[in-house]
Design goal:
CATH architecture: 2-Layer Sandwich
Structural class: alpha+beta
Shape: elongated
Helix content: 10-25%
Number of helices: 3
Oligomer: single chain
Radius of gyration: 15 Å
Largest sheet: 5 strands, mixed
Number of strands: 5
Number of domains: 1
Strand content: 35-45%
Amino acid sequence: MAKVRYLTEMGMGVDVHGGDYTKAACRAVSDALRHSSLNFFKALGKSHNDMHITVKIAVAEPNQVDCAAVAEQIPYGTVTVEPSVGGLNIDAVDGRDVLVIANAGILVHFEE
């Protein structure tokens, strides 16, 4: 069966102190979810659990993202998290801390 994309949603998240890429990524996913209201389930004859969701996360250090923790932010469907290089780090003035910005793209597909 082919998967068809029905939704693309974007979000941004920040960890202001501590340089926690997972925290910033989770906040980016939460931001994206707050922008969404999915009303097409009945029209498609699908349920929330029929969704195949790809979460694309962009941060400066993608290998430091806990993908399982990010996936837990999505309450329904089958979730795959794909971290990649992106986002933005901003060093503190004294160089002892870093502000981490993450971008998230959430793609929702259904099998047709």
